[in-house]
């Protein structure tokens, strides 16, 4: 019997985040998700408003979850944005806003979650990165930097808190069928597919199942790892 955990997923109202929330719900866990508006999460989850750029709103969201479900034992930092553009055309704001949401936002979430995890001597931190963070991508210097930075967070966190029953791991999705890939032109989609050894895009539930496994007792001795779920696209990176 799997121990029921209290799970918080940022950006859990759509795409990969929503699929992760649904996977934990199906496994019988107590699930909360954040969205900027405070609604739109999957049925059965507690949806709370939070802006990962605002530590005060994060604290308020955690308090709401703690009052209903108890301390957060599993945190999935998934909220992220893109502002793509080639280096010479990328404004400083385009760079800093993406890094602040995707990287500093994850730091804020983990810092708040770690208090309860340290008291419980148990915690699972899962950071949603991207194949782009290690593989690189033209026009995504800001996004790639933010996603690569999550690896440094997970590994440093492992060294800081690993002896306290807390693990920190990174999941690096490749091209996954979501609203974001659906809007790509057919020609672009075919170009991407030609680079993926598996010959297909991934499904959101393939990411969700990997995240759920990393949060389980079965993965208790795995920490500081980067798990690619990309059909072989970024192997070796």
Question: Which characteristics define this entry?
Answer:
237 residues; alpha/beta; 7-stranded parallel sheet; 8 helices; 7 strands; 16% strand
Question: Describe it for me?
Answer:
InterPro entries: KR_dom (IPR057326), NAD(P)-bd_dom_sf (IPR036291), SDR (IPR050259), SDR_fam (IPR002347). This is Beta-ketoacyl-ACP reductase. Belongs to the short-chain dehydrogenases/reductases (SDR) family. The chain has 237 residues and is α/β, with parallel strands linked by helices. It has one domain: NAD(P)-binding Rossmann-like Domain (Rossmann fold). It has a 7-stranded parallel β-sheet with strand order 3-2-1-4-5-6-7, with helices on both faces. Helix 1 links the parallel strand 1 and strand 2. The longest helix has 29 residues.
Describe the secondary-structure layout.
Elements (H helix, E strand, L loop, with lengths): L5 E5 L4 H12 L3 E6 L10 E4 L5 H15 L4 E4 L14 H29 L2 E6 L3 H4 L5 H21 L4 E8 L5 H4 L3 H10 L8 H11 L11 E4 L8
Parallel strand pairs: 1-2, 1-4, 2-3, 4-5, 5-6, 6-7
Family: Belongs to the short-chain dehydrogenases/reductases (SDR) family.
Keywords: Oxidoreductase
GO molecular function: oxidoreductase activity
